[in-house]
Amino acid sequence: MSRNLINEQEVALLLNDVLEKYGYDFTDYAPASINRRVNHLYQLDRFVSFAEFRYRIISDPAYAHRFVEEITVNVTEMFRDPSFYQALRMEVLPVLATYPFIRVWHAGCSTGEEVYSFAILLKEAKLLHKAIIYATDLNTSVLEKGRKGMFRLSQMQQYSRNYMEAGGTEDFSSYYTANYEYAKFREELGEKIIFSPHNLVTDSSFNEFQLIICRNVLIYFNKELQDRVLTLFSDSLEQLGYLALGSKETLNFTKVARKFKQLESREKIWRKIQL
User: Fold this and answer.
1) Model-level pTM?
2) Phi and psi (nearest 5°) for 78?
3) Counts for the chain of helices (H) and strands (E), in that order
């Protein structure tokens, strides 16, 4: 019979193993969240001891890959928090329209539902043709799903409601074709999205953007790591560029707070100001 839980010290040992052997750094993730997810996998795969679990992670790269996949969070939906997308539509896109070319970074993009949502906003604002969206995540399996642009048909009713609440002006079903149990989104949307692995904890900036979207990722990081990632975002934004975070995230009391001003809508969208 497997032991119910492994303790915080043992979780810390595992995270150190994964960092040293595979280069994935989870050591500054919020302890309660990471402990819960590690224990979930430990119980799910029915290990009889911590030692066995640890040995498997160290000695089996395929299992280590599963470990990384399971402890990264992939909760997402199209037009999640519709008022956020409405704010992008009304306050951010008219400014982006003045640029000759638009570069967007969607960090921690998961399986891509929110990336396709933003591509639809760009299409409706007649900006898609001059935009490119870099969609990145630590987890390569979710990126593969995003590349396919196929999401469960059973979700489309909810996504259509979200889309309408976000100020959608078209028939949402015009953006996809039904393919058995899946909705396949239009090629013209996917062609403007580059899905690529990027680790916010260890990787550096790779471009200069007018908009960075990173929603519901920072809540899993401790304060020090949040500051490090927000500094990366600040360094990756053009002057007067926009940073959009999740509904429970903020720039208040962070190292970069003085460099940004929140938009009037009170959605979690900030603009980088010239100091």
Assistant:
1) 0.83
2) -70, 140
3) 11, 10
